[in-house]
Design a protein that fits this description.
Layout lengths: L10 H5 L3 E8 L2 H16 L6 E6 L3 E4 L10 H5 L4 E3 L6 E4 L3 E7 L9 H17 L6 E3 L2 E6 L2 E11 L2 E9 L19 E2 L2 H5 L5 H16 L3 E3 L25
Parallel strand pairs: 1-2, 1-12, 3-4, 9-11
Antiparallel strand pairs: 2-6, 3-5, 6-10, 7-8, 8-9, 9-10
Helix pairs in contact: 4-6
């Protein structure tokens, strides 16, 4: 597959800055969504460059634009898992500890404004990343996401505001898969869900998986990646610094 970034000039030439990678750690879904929306506004205004947010969430179910409450079972409420309707594409999915969740906030221009190709590029990132761990994943015709056989390993759903992307992908790494039994994942009745831990028989190192995702994001999108911290970003300036020891953290 041609690198997505090969469609246009590299980000470093367009913005004078690399794409920034911010590891938010474990963060409430609603809080993270507000962060995304604020950063999308800054990106659309040209205040900040493109970003990739990495995180994991406490248990939560989200319903995309193509979904409905009929795909959320009563067990979700019994187990105290909140359900949130959001603007991303797709149907119902579950987020929880043990996932690697990625939210690319990219300003799409010119030929990049092809959301089908953008989705295929996100799939390619994950396919290559899990391939580094010996998992032969792929696509299924007519369906979004990354699959191993009939089981979905990574869910993908995106939205666009002013041609800046938000939402993204959720890779099941060491995820407890039981909550997926309480919903109809992605509205698909005849398919299952899996995780890297289930496929490989042992829990995986989160730092190693995040690093693989970042490395292959750089390769597929053709954009240099630079670690940064959320505290570096405000409405007026963005000055990356060494923040590995700070609260907001970086994966390097």
């Amino acid at each position: 597959m041609m690198g997505f970034g090969a469609l246009v000039e590299p980000l470093a030439e367009r913005d004078g800055m690399a794409m920034l990678v911010i590891d938010l750690g474990r963060i409430d879904y609603g809080e993270c969504l507000e962060i995304q929306r604020k950063l999308v506004g800054l990106r659309a205004a040209g205040t900040v460059p493109d970003l990739l947010l990495l995180c994991e969430h406490p248990p939560v179910v989200t319903i995309g634009r193509g979904g409905g409450w009929e795909h959320v079972g009563e067990a979700i409420a019994r187990h105290g898992v909140p359900t949130i309707e959001v603007e991303r594409g797709g149907d119902v999915t579950y987020h929880g500890p043990g996932q690697v969740v990625g939210y690319p906030l990219l300003a799409l221009g010119g030929e990049e404004r092809d959301l089908h190709r953008y989705l295929r590029a996100l799939e390619e990132v994950v396919i290559r990343a899990v391939g580094d761990f010996g998992i032969a994943a792929g696509r299924r015709s007519g369906l979004t996401g990354v699959w191993v056989g009939n089981d979905k390993l990574c869910a993908i759903g995106v939205a666009v505001r002013r041609w800046v992307t938000l939402h993204g992908f959720a890779l099941n790494m060491n995820t407890d898969l039981q909550p997926f039994e309480w919903i109809v994942p992605c509205g698909l009745h005849d398919y299952g869900v899996t995780s890297m831990e289930r496929l490989l028989g042992t829990p995986q190192d989160p730092a190693a998986v995040r690093a693989a995702v970042t490395r292959h994001f750089e390769a597929v999108f053709g954009r240099p990646m630079q670690p940064a911290c959320l505290d570096d970003i405000d409405a007026n300036a963005l000055v990356p610094r060494d923040c590995a020891s700070e609260r907001s953290g970086c994966p390097w």
